[in-house]
């Protein structure tokens, strides 16, 4: 493999942040390439500052480099200044670890955390010197792989990505390595042969192995091309997180990055059942690490990284069983070392207590963000975010009483059945939070962040037609007008035009891929960055391809419609999702299924998986509860396998 550093180094004096591209971070691996090893290039299709903290990439980076038959390096999207220099000098994309040419790796593996990065994926493949469309690649080219939450609707990138990993990657990357290794040993004779073999690996979807039939605009069938290729690709799930205590040696960047701290994952999955939340749906069941393993990972990670802040990450960290004791234990472990601050970046207000507030501010107060999501109790029942105003105000009071002066509230707008009164409830809640804070500090303030809602695959809202950009602007302007006199409330919002484009990319089928390609060819990279986004590019591309963007975004779907992602299985029965959608329209909420009879969503019963919590006592009476209701003990994890639903009238599968 070639080292491009002599060609890259002279370019770095001409770019804004050269440290993005030099590697050599604390925690970086020292990969040793060998012809007998499968070489992975793990790519994050955004800048170094955004991509380096990504835990998924860091985990796979370590696991692959521990194998005898594999080697892994990293790359991130070069900013526009370096990209222009690379193209001008005909220098290809490179790894940051050893500055090897991307096209010389066996696999280019992308993390897809959001849909607006799709144009960056095409750009990076092109910069690597690899044909952008997968049907133009030869056996000499790398296999282009992608995974992540956005891969649960892989169809918009079906003509560009060779294979998708559906679900969690810790185990499946070993099987992919073995398939690609055998292909290499066989002389890389046939690209279709290796793609066929990958399509038989559980959890791997290879678009070229499937034919899609249309009747006008609608999909009528998705059919495997070979009898041993599955009709449906089921997600991969790691059953026991304690078997995967990664990353063991976290990467410490050379420049400031987002989430610049030690990140330790405490659990995966969520059974709260928020109907808008794709992450909560596709990552079921809940699997907690043992509290002792979390403390060990924190202790070792801080020692190896030098950080003085740790974030306990999950979809809802305050739901971790015994969270009070865990936070107190982490702080006690660091006594005498100068202390460590603990942040809980994913907080549910109904699981936040004065005890938690007191614990996490002992060293210094990190930021607090609460996510009520909707401005009224009626709408929170629709979206199944079952927190009351009293829950929110109690959490806000707990935080302000412990010395916080400001906090952030996150809401969505454009939710199903949303009325203007629901929208204005956002402003009312923000003003009430300021009033609570002013009891403790006259400088108390609140930042309100409002995002436009995009219905995602494998959620009960996948049949909903999202609000158009004009309607979202109208709602944002209502809030701006109401909050303008209230200087203690700062309002921020996501661009409604970008929300509309996200809907095109996230809800599209294979035909939308050509729209994405046109946007890229028109210079539309870094579409998540406001200074680079332009909706006109997307609308012009749709027009050129003869595609009606509203058909993919604002149109409500029908129950019997074949959705572009129906052949991808997130573990959830489609009829469960439909009935939950009907329950949403009836404004009927469902409690957390960890502590109730099973709703038969399909994950536990069909996949032989179980909810795993770190403590051995469930809430008394089987009522809805949080991790706060569990005993804080050192006993072995308890696994809850739900029973069948007790009724069919609660919007669940019977």
Question: Could you explain the architecture of this structure?
Answer:
With 654 residues, this protein is α/β, with parallel strands linked by helices. The chain has two domains: 5-234, Rossmann fold (3-Layer(aba) Sandwich); 261-511 and 547-585, tm_1862 like domain (pyruvate-formate lyase- activating enzyme, Alpha-Beta Horseshoe). The strands form seven sheets. Strands 2-1-3-4-5-6 form a six-stranded mixed beta sheet. A four-stranded parallel beta sheet has the order 15-16-17-18, covered by helices on one side. The chain has a three-stranded parallel beta sheet with strand order 10-13-14, covered by helices on one side. Helix 10 (323-333) packs parallel to helix 11 (354-360) and helix 17 packs across helix 18. Mean pLDDT is 91; it is low at 616-654.
Q: Please give the count of helices.
A: 21
| CATH homologous superfamily annotation of the largest domain | tm_1862 like domain
Count of folded domains: 2
CATH topology of the largest domain: pyruvate-formate lyase- activating enzyme
Major sheet strand order: 2-1-3-4-5-6
Largest sheet: 6 strands, mixed
* Distance, first to last CA: 57 Å
The number of E-state strands comes to 21
SS content category:
alpha/beta
Helix share bin = 25-40%
- Seen as an oligomer or otherwise, the chain set is single chain
List the topology elements.
Elements: H1 5-12, E1 38-44, H2 48-51, H3 55-66, E2 70-76, H4 80-89, E3 107-111, H5 118-127, E4 143-147, E5 163-165, H6 172-185, H7 191-199, E6 204-205, E7 210-215, E8 218-224, E9 233-234, E10 262-265, E11 267-268, H8 278-282, E12 287-288, H9 291-305, E13 309-313, H10 323-333, E14 341-343, H11 354-360, E15 369-373, H12 377-383, H13 389-401, E16 406-413, H14 420-438, E17 445-452, H15 469-483, E18 489-493, H16 496-507, H17 512-521, H18 535-544, H19 549-552, E19 568-569, H20 574-585, H21 603-607, E20 611-613, E21 638-640
Parallel strand pairs: 1-2, 1-3, 3-4, 4-5, 9-19, 10-13, 13-14, 15-16, 16-17, 17-18
Antiparallel strand pairs: 5-6, 7-8, 11-12, 20-21
